[in-house]
């Protein structure tokens, strides 16, 4: 066992324990024994890869990881994120305020794009349901072997009137870091106004240090700041998204999500019929629909 400091962008922990694959598997087996037996969707969700994420999030402490995972399994049994469909959140998505991009970054991370100025509702429950749907969809569209995503948040035109209520921000932070651990590689805040930094100061107590470390402020007029963008994205990709009101087509995106809904339902059904596979990372690419073209 080794110990390293996490200082680079997207690194997993501030002070992370490192184990050999064999040692990791021992930890996974201990955690699985602690939470057994699992049935239904919980057993499909709790793959070895999933258990490793919870263990990493709690620095391989079995008891802490067990509590975190049990809390997530309870939340999933109540919220039922895998059952949310496009029809449930289509209205929230009309403006393209949050969507899964069709491109990936240079490291093959799936990307979630956010435009806070496009907020079109005041319904916190609907907004959170849309975000959870997007998270679930993004995870199932991660390429094989990839577990983390990138958030690209474009603050063009943002003002105080676009501020997220503290209650909503706190709930989003809770869901992201407690129920989707080790899923965020980096969150890039693009051209946030200086006043937004004050908002982040308020939100910071709700974020654990591991998550907060992954949040990066980037200003396109600052060449030094833009190095992070250059590291992750090609210029033509950024031009498609940044300050581009035509980056999102609701009708085309709806078609994509409706297909993914069918694939997602098939994935969970197959899991119930065949059972989870050790180490499997769910991915919709394994699902083929008969009417797919």
TrEMBL record:
Highest taxon of the lineage: Eukaryota
Protein name: CRAL-TRIO domain-containing protein
Pfam families assigned: CRAL_TRIO, CRAL_TRIO_N
SUPFAM superfamilies in alphabetical order: CRAL/TRIO domain, CRAL/TRIO N-terminal domain
Domain CRAL-TRIO, chain residue ranges per copy: 86-250
